[in-house]
Design brief:
With about 450 residues, this protein is mainly α. The protein has 22 helices and no strands. The longest helix is centred in the first third of the chain and has 29 residues. It starts with a helix and ends with a helix.
Amino acid sequence: MNKILIWSITAALAGFLFGFDTVVISGAEKKLQLLWGTSDIFHGIVVIGMALWGTVIGAFFGGIPTNKIGRKNTLIGIGVLYTISAIGSGLANDPWTFAFFRFIGGLGVGASTIAAPAYISEIAPAKDRGKLVGLYQFNIVFGILIAFLSNYLLNNIGENAWRWMIGIEAFPAAIYTLIAFTIPKSPRWLLTKFRNKEAIKVLQKISPDQDPEKLMLEIKDEMENTVPNENIFLKKYRFPLLLAFCIAFFNQLSGINALLYYAPRIFEEAGLGESTALLSSIGIGVTNMLFTLLGVILIDRLGRKQLMLICSFGYIISLSLVSAAFFFSWEGSFMPVFLFMFIAAHAIGQGTVIWVFISEIFPNHLRGSGQSFGSSVHWVLAAVVPSLVPILFSTIGAAVVFLFFAIMMVFQLLFVLFMMPETKGVSLEELSKKLTNKNINKNEIKETPIADIL
């Protein structure tokens, strides 16, 4: 278990860079808009949004290297992308160059949401899979906290403070790239590539007291129910595809990324000064990390579905209060409390569950592709929603925006109650049998139209 924990933490450090890279822009974005004199639309879509669209591309195509060259090699490549992005964007002198290098970092973020959870889920025992994959999310929020703290500490070091805020990520990114070479390849990936001897060696390292032949037989049985060159859009995979779509859709329609990217701006809208707004952002980071840690502890005890129920109610209450605070001008200390409630609800539920759940519901040979689909849905919305925030705040107002998010969380509650299955403690191969329609004749297998999924 000690080896598995070390390897899981190493892979999960991709999440630390994900969190840092995604949120570090929040401390610099207003300065960059003033420096380059860009409009709200250009600032939102290009300066801020380009990294998010890079994440969409990384998520959309990240399943290809994850399946072809393996989880480990993909994680190493992700570290290289983060390093290049941090150095390039920190040295940029115009918005287009800055956006280009932020786009490269976005590619790493998107691909990491596929490769890291897939890797950890495939080396983890079923009883500990939730908390071990949950380490990825914990590292994301730890990275977010460090980014907020870094921004606060570097805010007043001079007119080029934003360069240090953005560029300092190069140091942890380079270190991560090097340590990613030390982890073994995923045994389940090796078995799907028929590299049995390598897989047996890794399995013996992971579980020296267990017979690796048992897992090999389970995977062989799973593969017998497949057809050559099949993909996740076949009719028999419709249910896991729908589950991945829904959990990713509701994750972003909570407004979580809109808050994280624009936390200082939202606090200033609520009547707090710039320095207090940055400090309150650190409070968001602390709350996020503590409740994610609680979620990681509880996910294999209460289960994925129970955590999602808790977070759905928390979302509805906290988002309604945030909306009311803007409607009725409750300025001052109310807003940070309501937003901390929202962050806590997200962290203990959606934040902890999403990458675990998506990494569990697809069969071994399609896990990368399935996670790519779920991550793509997540990141398309993560690009669209924050890109529209500056425009929506200046037109319909923050109160209406947060009310919309609260209403969407009512629909999430219905999804959890009536559709979401519990996956805790079940082997990946057994989950594949339960969630896949095995009764379809192989000769009748056909692709599922996207319209049927939506």
